[in-house]
Amino acid sequence: MKAVMTKYAEKYPDITRLYSIGESVEGRELLVLEITDNPGIHEPGEPEFKYVGNMHGNEVVGRELLILLIELLCENYHHVPEVKALVDSARIHIMPSMNPDGHEKAIEGDREGVMGRANANTVDLNRDFPDQFDKKKHTVQPETKAIMQWLKSIPFVLSANLHGGSLVANYPYDDSPTGKSIYSKCPDDDVFIQLTEAYSEAHPTMHLGHPCPKYYPSETFDDGITNGAAWYSVAGGMQDWNYLNTNCFEITLELGCFKYPYQKDLESYWEDNELSLITFLQQVHKGVKGFVLSESGVGLSNVTIHVYSIDHDIITAKDGDYWRLLVPGVHKVTASLDGYISDTQTVTVSEGLATHLNFTLRSVGSPEKPLKEQIPINLSPDDWGTIYDYGLPQNFTTYLSNQDLIAQIADYAIKYSNITQLVELTKTPKQNTIYDLVITYDNDHGKAFEKPEVALIGGLHAEQPVGREILMRIIRHICEGFSRGDEHIVDLVSTITIHIIPGVDLDGFDEAQLEDCDGNHYDNTSSIVNVFSTDNTELSDRPEIKALKELFENVKFESVLSIEADGLWVRYPMDYARDESPLVNGVKTEDDSTLQFLSLAYSMKHPSMHTGSESCHGYQFTDGITHGAEWIPTKNTFQDYLYLQEKTLMITAHISCCKYPAVIDLASIWQTNMQSILQFLGKAKQGISGAVTDVKGKPLIDAEVTLIEHSRSIYVNPDTGIFYAILSPGLYRVVITAPGYTPMTKLSQVYEGKLQALNVSLPPEKELTYHSYDEMETLLRHLDEAYTNMTHLYTLGQSLEYRQLWALEISQNAGKRVPGKPTIKFIGNIHGNEVIGRELLLALSEYLLYSYGKDDWITQLLDSTSVHIVPSVNPDGSMKAEEGKCTADDGSLNSHQVDLAWDFTSKFVNRTTSRQPETEALEKWIVESPFVLSVAFHGGTLVTSYPYDGSSHPGTSGENPTKDDDVFRFLAQTYANKHPTMHLGNPACPDDVGKNSSVEFSDGIINGAEWKSQIGSMQDFNYDFSNCFEITVYTGCCKYPYAKELNQFWRDNAASLIAIMEKVHIGIRGIVCDKYNHGLKGAMIRVEGYNKAVYTYNDGDYWRLLLPGKYTVTASAPGYTEEVKEIKVPDNGKVLIVDFYLTPENAIFGLPPAMFIIITATGIALFILMFIFLYRVCKYRKMDRKKHGFYRLDGEKMYQEEYADRLALRDYHSKQTLLSNGYKDLSESESEDDIMFKKY
């Protein structure tokens, strides 16, 4: 055994690891062979599975079967895709012998003996585990101890323990409270029944329930399974210990009536159990799985996963991943962890692969660094100061006057001159000086300007002077902390630049009154607040206003915090709802998540603010944060001005209900807010930062950095190309562009407290030129040869002049269809003289292939999408067209002078003429291929059109929308909106370009029939005769512009092309299976209210484009009962997975009852007529009647064949498909009979 395991470990080191979990009593190693694609590590999200054999040394069938299973998995890994998928998608641990000592004593031919059953200490190992009912303590055996430690070290999900002596699958509990043989039900009884039935039903005889009629004629098991204790009660069993002490669900398999059969019989045991072993292994992918993350995106370990009404919890692994086996149905699942707020979600578990369910838990404490610790406030001010404020005096005896404030800030600048710089901003009308104290430590050789800049502002409201006092204390705390070497403070001032402006409205302060909590005694007519117009209107000529505006125009601040009173919450933009700005929708900005994050950073570190329970003036806000407009809508506030005008994130902390609190309250206000302010400052070190350069490392000063779904860019330093942005935790798509360079998209995961480096080098933009047919063919062949793993070049057919209609597939695994992977096509040059589409598609091909592996988003798109590009449909016509001819029609038609654009089969007319060869090739390709979305390119104007083009009244223009008009409008608008001018809807084409060319198009899109109704378009054909949705893009007024304009066409369309590729992933997708998980080809998917049905492809997979919303979806197939589901497509832009499992109709010989009766009656009538006829013609001839059309079914043989289909593991073709909750994945070139395991 050891030699065989070693042989496979050495022969297949890339997928195996041989290790020992300990030794037996006699010193034999307890060997395990791990089989997976990355042996030796636990891959987050990948389940752990184990098989254990030979626990009883004389029960050897399991030992031998597991050795054969090792051989099967290893030898077939590189040859059978389904085996590869099985190995790649799980970490499989196989222990052939748990009791090698006992095995040495066992004797071949022993049917029911006990020689070798126990270990060397004569202990039955399956009675040696700690038991839930029998609390007697004993010293466990070395083998038992090793197993227990093994199970604690690896997050096993599923297991089977292989025994012998009967033929049954046994599930927990093995023991009962009384020790008697009664049904001892565990909380997951239904799960265990499902697991054991999976094994039993895949076995040719186990499921029959008569295991050993020759030896035990009265012993039966329904369906070949049994509850352990119902069979006979066993205390100290291994399967119960697995279930009660780990995440692992284990069953016990009795593999035959002979414990130690003769060697000649092993082959039959293998044949009986091979499929069952594989089938049971697949069960590890059932139920629900996912990750539990913190708000920063870090996986949380030891989180309890609880399923409502099931009294059995599991915990997450070290990376936050978990797997919870469940039966199909609706389940309520809760994730909880001390120090975090629990999260409960409802999930629907299907009969297919595990449903993904992720949790994000919000922390309520348990910080990691002293800086973030919750500081107690029940200490005396002096004691508090000794512990948390470096022993500095905590005596607030009075509010600082303006003179005292100015003098003190000047003293700090002198005393701590190594980290401070005092900057005079302006003089007030009363000649008070407003200062900005800049605190930073230049430890980077003069590069302090590259640090993020953060501002703290106090005294913006003169009658709310508490901010002045608190900011003077924070200056003292930071400066003193740095001088004392506090590592947190040193790190803070070394990595950010802090601007502190303690007082702004100094003149107004002299007019305010102490303890005026409501501000009733303050005349605010001369106030400087709420005079910051966002439309460049001057609302005040006060020098304070001008100075603030100039400061924030000249310095790019990342975040700003104003300390105010009149509440106990944090306020963030918008203070006044607006809709006219692309940055704002009502009260929410496009940076709402980051503003909320900054606000929560403050409130959560405040002892009471985050509770939202304290009312100020009758207001309370959840978590202690609010949009300003949801408190008191106010125009022209400073924080709205900074957001809209300066791209700066500002929040306002209201730290006292009283506007001008008593002096005696200042100490507690300082204590409760110090930590929050430091927390806010620390968040400036979270987000993304990097530099944009060319490939030689030279900064690109005109670079632009933008977040997807954000309308404005991140500031890039024009001198260095450096950029920085504070972001809340999460995954971001960052687009980097520069004039004359190829754009790049990077995916950046932002974690709490971490600044993600994002340095990008952009390659220069390629100069585009026109391609003749031969040059196009040469380029396509070059790309196919240069990117062999990503491309598949093929031809649809030939044109009239025998030119190939080339198609280039670009995708990971190009040339091999992956079920569940959506397919999009791009088609150009339908009119031979409209050449921009051809050149755009050639440029797109080069861009996609060059960017794969460099551009994160393109890489992700090509990993999950199959892209088919047909640059030229009309190569014959293009040979006749001439560059620079914007309006000429030369080359528009094919060689038969037929307009291919209107040559397609149409439901609006019954054509008698035959299709052109180009059209026939396209129609065949469209109908036979699993396309989901398509874009065709034309020229002559600037617009995107969508079906229908035709109508029942050809030649009469008028809108003729499809039932999917909402989807088509969305797709068309997606393309138009990403184009710099198309969405404006005014192509402004010269009048001589062609008919309708000067028309305006609302939002840059139009229904084809409304524009110019004509039958026979390709986009109509796609919609009516295939699963595909097609839109048509008109790229510009000039049909054949000069080559020098090509690069601008590419720049204008590149973002639209990528955006439309993304939209192939909207709506619903899934698989339609029968009860054996076999995909049903040709099943129909219908959505209520839409007359277009889509049909499943060879592997039962489908895709249906839909917009967010609620739908009723029906799946049906001939001979099966239809299934109806109420679904909700999410509004997050992600596809919803909807699988269907159809059950056969009540059938007689495979036919519906009504059809069977009709056929039978017809058959009988025909039989009688034929009998009479033959009797009359051949009266004396003896007839030998034979039934035709039916035969007696061998039920047992048929049953086995149905399950033999599962051997192909059709729904486990690729790791990516499996782990992404994918679908059955068949190679189209292989039939079930082609896929065979090696013989043993």
TrEMBL record:
The active site is at E254 (proton donor/acceptor). Its cofactor is Zn(2+). The keyword Manganese does not apply. The chain crosses the membrane at residues 1154-1177. Keywords: Carboxypeptidase, Glycoprotein, Hydrolase, Membrane, Metal-binding, Protease, Transmembrane, Transmembrane helix, Zinc. Residues 1-284, 398-684, 769-1064 form the Peptidase M14 domain. Belongs to the peptidase M14 family. This is Carboxypeptidase D-like. It comes from Saccoglossus kowalevskii (Acorn worm). The lineage of its organism: Eukaryota, Metazoa, Hemichordata, Enteropneusta, Harrimaniidae.
